[in-house]
Design goal:
87 residues, alpha+beta, four-stranded antiparallel beta sheet, 29% strand
């Protein structure tokens, strides 16, 4: 289940999901203009941009930004596995 579906189910309405989607998409558009906006991670080419309670985790390739995951920062950080998702 993705984040947006989760909030629709919990809240019984899509209002919050629509706002959250717009906020995350706005952050992704910022990344398209400035790929190094996010904070570096333990991996050289991977960065994380915080947007509200979420991190947009992404990898920078030559002319490409690959969104690896959208992470809810309220979750246990031990559950965040990045290295198995790249390449």
């Amino acid at each position: 289940m993705d984040i947006l579906d989760f909030y629709v189910r919990i809240n019984g309405t899509a209002t919050y999901s629509v706002k959250l989607n717009a906020k995350i998409n706005s952050s992704i558009k910022l990344l398209s203009k400035n790929p190094f906006l996010g904070t570096p991670t333990d991996y050289d080419s991977i960065r994380a941009l915080v947007t509200g309670d979420y991190q947009v985790i992404y990898e920078i390739f030559n002319q490409l930004i690959l969104i690896i995951m959208i992470w809810d920062c309220r979750r246990d950080p031990e559950d965040k596995v990045i290295d198995k998702r790249i390449r």
